[in-house]
Amino acid sequence: MPPRKQVESLEHMCFMVMAGTLHRLAVELEEEPESCQVSAEELSSTVASLPAVINENMITKVIETIHQTVSRTRRTIGMRTCLEVLLQPHVQRLDLSGLFFKMRLPVAINMTIRNVVREQVGSMKNLMILNMVSKCSDEILCIVSQKCPNITEVIVSISDLVTDEGLKALALGCPKLEKLGISKCWEVTTDGIAYALQYGKNLQKLQCDQLGAVMINRFKKSNTTFKLTHFEQTQTLFEPQEEEIAWVGGACPCLESASLFVDDESLALVPQLGDIRVLEIETSAILGNGFVKAITNLGVSLLTLQLNCDEVNQEKIVLLGKCCPCLTTLHLTTATVEGDELLINPGQLFSSLTALHLQVWKETVISNECVEFFLMWCHKLESVVLKAELEFLTDQYLKRILAANPLTEAKRIIIASEKHVPLTLESVYRLMASCPSLENLGISSWDITEEEFFKIRDDVRKNNYNFMIS
Length: 470
Description:
Radius of gyration: 26 Å
InterPro entries: Leu-rich_rpt_Cys-con_subtyp
GO biological process, one term: SCF-dependent proteasomal ubiquitin-dependent protein catabolic process
Organism: Homarus americanus (American lobster)
Distance between the termini: 18 Å
Number of strands: 15
Mean pLDDT: 90
Strand content: 15-25%
CATH superfamily of the largest domain: Ribonuclease Inhibitor
GO cellular component, one term: SCF ubiquitin ligase complex
CATH class of the largest domain: Alpha Beta
Largest sheet: 10 strands, parallel
CATH topology of the largest domain: Leucine-rich repeat, LRR (right-handed beta-alpha superhelix)
Helix content: 40-55%
Protein name: F-box/LRR-repeat protein 4-like 1
């Protein structure tokens, strides 16, 4: 059966009480300052007396509290005061990403957030990490470049107010910068990216979908070397010459991962980047000799493969298992899995796999042989996601799978379809019994009534299982 929920830690309980209290006082200060028990200055002084690590945790917990309030009432009263109080000079890690990922806020509120950060961040001399996904601006980056010399990580992706000006200031003023995320910053040009590469001497990871084109076009004729551990080119098709990809491998000797939008021919060149451990590939081509050469040469170094393509041949799946025996994560998204021969796993293929995400789209039926190829033999699976037409996947079929491989390590299982998965309440309880580590089970497409869904939920609550159904 699934594990029981642990008793909520006193630390977490204290944080949430403190966050709720701070948010309540902030709301009172903005709505009825005359009747509030404390002033903004007193509240800020209290927070300032806390150790930095508690202050930083309070920021994320208060954002969580604000999210709950916004979801329930649509009101953002108190947000400004919370940020003014929490953004103290001793903060080293400022993570405001929850303001983007957890809630959609009006333009005026986003402007307020930026204004508060701009006013407060200049005093954060010890700031090392800044995460302002979708909320950042050039003004903020310029202040960070002037006042935060120890910063090592800045994530400002999806921020339309970040331009080349902000990047140049950051590259010049923050010599310790190691990680920079600027994906989907549409106002950033290739000039800004090149500037960040040229002056970010300690940059190890630059999240930017034009990285490959900028590096080759701007630096290939120079003797520049980079400390980058990640390489990507996903905005446009990456079609490098062999000498260009070889140059990238030589100029970036520390590369460990790559994200590429390529054709099959260019896939053959990927191993020249080095011993890539994590590879994300998107291609509209049918996988052919280029893919074969890539996985053959990467071999045991490849640990994670995320592949999005129009068609996968069954023989290529078998070859992948033979060439890359150390693969632990496989995400395969495709329109169809083709092949004339039966897909059979002799027992040793993908034996190291812990995460399998198999999605066959366009309402294409996936074969039972493909499901059995993985689920019968991958005994270390911790995460299983199957999204396709799965009419054959009945209670009895799943029972036979679990008899061969009980999935005892599985923590997450999601089986879904655009139409219907003929699994019933019987399979829910069978998986709960077979998978002692199971924490998340996706059953939205199953043959389960609303009444049965509530019954499962009530059983989970009654037995205090650390288990979520969705």
